[in-house]
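All the exercises in this workshop are built on plain-text protein records. The record below serves as our worked example for the rest of this section.
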Amino acid sequence: MKQPEHEIRLLQVAEDDLREIINYIALDNPAAATDLLDKIENSLSGLISFPLLGKIPAEEALAGMGYRFLTVNNYLVFYTVEEQIIWVHRIIHGARNYISLL
């Protein structure tokens, strides 16, 4: 029997992260911005059928809160799974102190 598929929802702060990232990259290289957006969207689409695809963070506090993350280029996409909903919390450059942002 097939498992029901999940739904992706971005928190407002994650939508803001994505918009800021894409707009910033587009200032210098619109094609790279479009490519990154496509990669992020494709990665998120993969979660619909495989919600536990992302890695569990090494930080115990984040793992304990149920966070998982995907790596897309230099960005980390943090999410949690609640029943059939995948909540995207933040999309953060890997060089940033993401622990303080979550």
About this structure: Residues 32 and 86 are 26 Å apart (CA to CA). Helices lie at 12-28, 30-49, 60-64, 98-101. The chain has a mean pLDDT of 93. The chain has four helices and four strands.
